[in-house]
Amino acid sequence: MRQIITHFTDDDLYKFTMCCAVIDNYPRAQVKYTFVDRDNTVYPPGFGLELERQIALLENVTVTEEEIAFMKRRCPYIPVWFYTFLKGFRYDRRQVKVAQSSDGHLSVEFEGPWSSTILLEVKVLAIISELYYEMTGLSRQLDYDAYFSKAREKAYRLINAGCYFSDFGTRRRASFQAQDTAVRAMAEYSASAGGPGRFTGTSNVYLAMKYDLTPIGTMAHELICALAGIYGPQMANHIAMRTWTSTFRGALGTFLYDTYGWEIFSLNFSEDFANMFKGLRVDSGNNRDELDKIIAKYNSFGIDASTKQVVFSNALNTDTAIELQRYATGKCLPSYGIGTHFTNDFPGIKHLNIVIKLIAVKITESWTFYNETCKLSEDPDKYTGRPEVVRRFKETLHLMND
Asked: What predicted TM-score, i.e. pTM, was given to this entire model?
């Protein structure tokens, strides 16, 4: 089996920006992550062993001077010291434990310094997804010429509907080639399109470099989850916003608010933060309802919501993005981060419903115990964490009637 990940920046931008913020603010923190397959997929025999081999092969993947030069040019908000860290960074297979049960189910656990394990999530998910199609033989059904045309048609519809959209599809792509094909098609069409919308870039830093696009991304739920484990969930959003601004000084100012739902975030989202951050990202719940809550919150501060960015990224496709565009136009500055629909939308192929989530944290390696944590989004089926931890967090946040 060929090596699946061969480029260091074949990863989402938010993993690099998050890593930078972690080193800057919590350099000694230790974490645990776990792999979650929401569909309880049965993987082919030998899958776990091949996954272990692919993770071991990451140890020979290092950042290049070309990749660093591109990030310095396109990501000026990342401090120069971070590239010194990347030059010396090496993946470590010992931080990942893979097991496959006799009935084919997969277990993947991660443990180690937050500053290094943080760069494993997206790469391991991309490996699992592509490896699954390779080992089941489904990869032979992937028609990339047809996929190019399909991606171009999506870009045509979105641009003509006035949508500003980007590719968020690294984690659950059918293959690297599938994401490459989609990004190339959308970039080529957008360059000559005359519609009011625009393809704004891709979360994948390597593909952004390959096609000279803007890498797109800011942060993930894991920052708030980790801080909730360390300090408690009531003020985790507040601490996360302060942490983020201390590192990036106003850049990357789109905050992902739904880790513990709107209500507790709203209590943490004071007028100074509302003015400081450029906007918010909607990643769960009913998109229209969430937008209405956001607008009402800005209005309560006397802030014109039509000047604020709202990024929608909740399981979107072309149709739902266009529908949202009609609703959101004039109410905010909407944009759309679209993932699996762009990178794993082949006829007759079912995409994997997989995630890796941070489940425990300690602020320094000298602590003798971890604090468990969880995620409680606006959609209960997106909750992650042990049931007793979820219950404890819901009790703490007075969510037991939800």
From this structure: 0.97
